């Protein structure tokens, strides 16, 4: 009997210790030390990014979330879809099932008009255009050998060029990044038509920039890397410290759209957004095999994250996920029509009074009777969090899942007249998220 109890204690410690020690980003001292590392160049970029982030902030976030909801409703019920889907090439038999996808996937000539994709983003990232208007850059070489004198034709060379670029890939590629991939503004990474894997290396860093689209790639098995001299633009390279091991790190940036990516197993987070980042949409993506999936806001004391506004739409949170889908601080988060089929601790959590509107999601609770609750408030007593605005609107709960709401009921909320928030519940999520993750697109056919 004593042996059984000891094994139970060891098992509990094995589960808890990685969680308690994870994510050094949440230590306030980390930020003080990290900010001191910035040279004059990065400080200037930070100041410009702060201005851009403030300009990207929506004064009325409810109206943005309402606009997306009404578009989903009109797609499903067939009301005036031509106007709301913004597409002239809607072909009968197209398998696209949500308004973002219907904007481009039904066009058999998508490969000849790749930049049309930039017209399709919705939610808080809806003004993101990425590299639209710029030339096409074709990545021909999957290598990543030199961090300063970059080889033309590589992904690192592409993302560090000045000005807008629409980056595509010549063929299927596995890219093992030797250090974090630091991007410049006005870039689209477009993996449609080929299989592009960012794996077994460092991840992607979106730091103090704006206007980035990442679409149609797979990111997995990302690890910490030691840093060193790394080029971050055509005209600058500098000394970087150890990377954090995120799949995609959004750091002090705005107007970012991540769509149709497949992600799993990164050392830190799959996607983290921190340091005043805002105007972000994460859509149509598939996430599996991870502990702390998404962190939005890294420090309780960093109240500049109050401008953070993020839309999560049409994503599938799948097998072997544990927690943080997402975990939020300070800002406004619209979580709409996502499919939560697996979690082991909780699905949506937060601290520091974030506004979380969960709408039309499907939550399938785990078999563990102690992990049925979808929500988790951290570091605050109920007397405090009971005033936080966390609302569940037409979510579908299965296998015992339940959402603990708080804050005042949303009455007379300032949504558009066409908003039909209560019309389409989470029972439609299976259809809306059917094609989450990286797509198999063939040139000359609808994707």
UniProtKB/TrEMBL annotation:
A single GO BP: pectin catabolic process
Coiled coil location: none
Q: Which cofactors are named for this entry? A: Ca(2+)
Region forming the signal peptide: 1-22
The catalysed reaction is: Eliminative cleavage of (1->4)-alpha-D-galacturonan to give oligosaccharides with 4-deoxy-alpha-D-galact-4-enuronosyl groups at their non-reducing ends
Q: Which GO molecular function terms does the record list?
A: metal ion binding; pectate lyase activity
Q: Where in the cell is it found?
A: Secreted, Cell wall
Pathway(s) this gene product operates in, as recorded in its UniProt entry:
Glycan metabolism; pectin degradation; 2-dehydro-3-deoxy-D-gluconate from pectin: step 2/5
**Protein name (Swiss-Prot/TrEMBL):** Pectate lyase
User: Which organism was this protein described from?
Assistant: Vigna radiata var. radiata
